[in-house]
Predict the structure.
Amino acid sequence: MRSRIEKVLIDEVRKRMEQQQNRQGQGGQVPPMKPESYGKRLWHLWGPVVIWLVIGILVSMIAEYALTSVYIVSHYGNELNQGSSLSQTMELMEKDGASIMNAVVKQMNAYSTPINGVRALIVIPVMAFLFHKDRAKEKATGFHPNKKAPIWKYFAVIVIAAAMCLGLNNLITIGNFSAASETYTETLEGMYSAPLALQIAVLAIIVPISEELVFRGLLFKRFRENGGFMQAALLSAFVFGWIHNNIVQMIYGFVIGMMLAYLYEKYGSVKAPILAHMSMNLLSVLATKYKLLEWLAEDVLRIGIVTVACASIAATMFVFIQRIEEKPDIPGKSEEHENLAAV
């Protein structure tokens, strides 16, 4: 028995020596890594969020310009076609500038879903490229990410996401938090005014993919490589909540962001937070379309029971997910354990 244990240990030492030799440069020395500048490290951490914001600003500017042009032509086309001078046209625009701006803002809100869809379609390939670049860098440096959970355990992702989504929305309804933010109400009205098929395609599929690549696949993951889970989760969840433009969604986004980071940590794949985000957004779209939240709010006892049930289901799924082994899956480690167990 002792000889078998010694053989396993010797094999392990030999493997590590070979790995070390493969990483060494000429002369038997590991080539020194040039330290990155502070600015480069800062860009590495925050670059994806900056790119996401810039793309959003550019898409919004183009949409606003297009909607403004259409509005001016439709409402002032006759005056402009009658040979008005540039100064007369400018005076007309200046006189009605406030009404034009208000009308365009309302149209921007009404078209928020397709605008967000265009933004997400541009963001996804950019962030996918950066994401795969990070994974290639991990392999090159010998970094071992957390092992991926089996596919059958992903049912817990859908269940905990749906339970938290419905439960948190019920708490917002019970606390009447929506009344404290006019922007929150306007945002929801704009998002859910689009056709149902467009809402499902954009809000429940395209947007979750783009946001999870940015805030979990890149931001959380890069912070996680440089620190502990809690620090990375808090920072990514805070930024995820901050990007929403009203206090209600900020709080909601922070809580959900923590849950999504936790799923990424335990499942070892960005597919887990993407699936959770899709499930929550799809539930929100369907619940709004078929007035589920309004039906629950009609009876205090009804909404209370459903909220408690959501909390219980979410807690049960949390216990299940907590048992998932997320430690790095180091090649050769499982074989070593099997050999030792057989001794």
The two ends are 6 Å apart (CA to CA). The CA atoms of residues 73 and 81 lie 10 Å apart. Confidence is low (pLDDT under 50) at residues 22-31, 334-343.
